[in-house]
Amino acid sequence: MDLILPEDKPVQPHPEPHNFFIWGATMSGKSYFSSFFPHPLSLNTDGNADQGTTPAVQIRNVRGTDGRLEVSAIEMLDSVVTQLQAGQTTFQTVIVDVIDDICVMIEDAICINAGVQALSDIPYGKGYALFNTILQRFVINLKALPMDVIYVSREISVTDESTGSTQLKPSLKTKYYNIVNGNCDLVIHTQKFGTETYTREVTDRRAAYKPENITNKRVRQLLESCRNMFPVNTK
Ligand SMILES: Nc1ncnc2c1ncn2[C@@H]1O[C@H](COP(=O)(O)OP(=O)(O)OP(=O)(O)O)[C@@H](O)[C@H]1O
Ligand SMILES: [Mg+2]
Question: Omega into 98 within 30° of 0, i.e. cis?
Fold first, then answer.
């Protein structure tokens, strides 16, 4: 195969976000907001899928009576990715709801297969290495699809002992957050105030996106509903 090189001149960037990280407390509207993206498919872990309208695949580790894995979450994710790669689907958005649980399931599957309690029980750091490879492959494969990808994560509050101030953060462990987020373009925080007020705010972005560069009208409208998405000075 002859790879065709581009012309040697600067290209005009048209940055458009396709990979999203949405985090927030439980019942703050993460799944609800995600469900409005075009033609969504949810890779669901919490069994809440029945409550929404989004078509969903339940991801889990299925163990037989002997304790061995009959089907692992890793195999289920592989199967989903392979089918999406084959392109015979009308889905346009993949929602990983929630990525925190997917990480725990991958860890569990590795541990059950190795007959150990924790990744750290697998010698020479091989457990961690295997975990990183599997998570990275999953994220990179999803990113390569011609679809939008949304990772949903829960929220934790961290209190700084010295100042007493409390900060809200995604609950995904930092090292996993870095793998996932290294492949995301926008980070959105959902919050619920009182019983009926739902807000969404962009807390991180890869580039200063412009409304006119968001090609899908529906996605543009959804992003316009997030505070801090298009700060006035970037227009
Ligand atoms: N922007 C909104 N406007 C009106 N209702 C909303 C909005 N966001 C969420 N809701 C309502 O709140 C409920 C809970 O939202 P949702 O299921 O999206 O929460 P979640 O953050 O995914 O929670 P969990 O972490 O428990 O899965 C939904 O069933 C929906 O009816
Ligand atoms: Mg949810």
Answer: yes
Measured by CA distance, the residue closest to atom 25 of ligand 1 is 26
Tokens of 42: 């949810």
145 is written with which tokens? 């699809």
How far, in Å, CA of 133 to CA of 153, rounded? 20
Domain ranges of the chain: 19-226
Residue found by looking up tokens 């990275």 in the block: 136
Section 172-191 average pLDDT: 95
Kindly tell me the sign of the dihedral angle through the C-alpha atoms of 65, 69, 72, 75: negative
**2 neighbors 196 (Cβ within 8 angstroms):** no
Q: For 12-23, what is each residue's pLDDT tens digit?
A: 888 999 999 999
| Cα 128 to Cα 181: distance, rounded to the nearest angstrom | 18
Q: Which ligand is nearest to the CA of 193?
A: 1
Cβ partners under 8 Å of residue 172, min gap 6: 23, 99, 100, 103, 153, 180
Distance 33 CA to ligand 1 centre (A): 7
CATH number of 19-226: 3.40.50
What separation in Å is there between the alpha carbon of 31 and the centre of ligand 2? Answer: 4
Angstrom distance (rounded) from CA 139 to CA 162 = 36
pTM attached to this predicted model? 0.94
Q: By the 8 A CB rule, do 87 and 94 touch? A: no
Taking the C-alpha atoms of residue 29 and residue 33, their distance in angstroms, rounded to an integer, is 6
Chain Cα centroid distance, residue 211: 23
Question: What share of residues in the chain are helix, strand, coil (percent, to 5)?
Answer: 35, 25, 40
CA of 57 to the centre of ligand 2 (A): 14
